[in-house]
Amino acid sequence: MYHGFGRRPRDADPHNLFVPAADLERQLDMVARYLRPLDLDGFLAGLGRRRWPGRSVLVTIDDGYASTLDVAAPLLAGRGIPAVVFVCPGVLGGTSAWMQEMPGEPLLDADGVRALGEYGIEVASHGLDHTLLPGLPPEQLREQVEGSAARLADLLGSRPRVFAYPEGRFDEAAARAVREAGYEAAFSVTERDGRFGVPRRGVTARDSALVFAAKLLPGFDRVERLSVGSPKVRRLAARALRQRPR
Q1: Which residues of 154-188 are buried (b: 16+ CB within 10 A; e: fewer)?
Q2: Residue 179 belongs to what H/E stretch?
Q3: What are phi and psi of 19, to 5 degrees?
Q4: Tens of pLDDT, residues 130-164
């Protein structure tokens, strides 16, 4: 799971969401060399069976920042790596106003979203405007889930097939709304709940080459969960993997 791309000053990217282009190049080279990148068709086929070909990986990108097209799309296409980008159709051409710490990051406009398909990138929904879904009244929840699908269908000519919860957060009502709206699957961040709560491994600007390589290993999630309650273990692991400072 990626977000943005390119270098940003620390105060413009307090969450380390923007991966420098040089890092992304090295990461995608590693993916292309050692793994089997899937497109969404391949991922969904495996999801139904709970089995994918060995070393499979799906690249996803959240929020729909302009840097997705400017930086990431050519690098992905140049290596033949497909991806899924989750955008918010209610704020296309705007900025990341939902993030108080970094409200001015440009988002893709409608033409930019359409252009992603030329690079083998599938567009899906991240809600209408990045509103968090847990606890929303039913009408607002439908607007975020069904309304975003309708807008993307108008823009692209087909409905999005999958959904990513803003900030990865969802509750039972949100998962039900996504399922009833006809999406085939939904992605979280860490929470796991079947095909409508698929967790992902986030990639950030702090990830050294060793950290990124560790995130590609099958047992990484389990080790990370075990280290949550042990700050000392996390510090030692970060030092061993040369994780970059915040």
Answers
A1: ebbeebbbbbbbbebebeeebbebbbebebbbbbb
A2: helix 172-180
A3: -85, 125
A4: 999 999 999 999 999 999 999 999 999 999 999 99
Return the ∠ at Cα 91 (arms to 205 and 158), rounded to 5°.
100
CA distance 97 to 111: 20
CATH number at residue 188: 3.20.20.370
- Range with lowest mean pLDDT among 110-119, 220-229, 230-239: 230-239
- Cβ-proximal residues to 17 (8 Å cutoff; 6+ apart), any chain: 3, 4, 204, 205
Residue in the block written with tokens 């296309």:
92
CB 175 within 8 A of CB 196: yes
| Residues sharing a CB contact under 8 Å with residue 212, sequence separation 6 or more, in sequence order | 23, 26, 27, 30, 203
**Domain around 227:** 208-246
> How many domains, in total, are found in the chain?
2
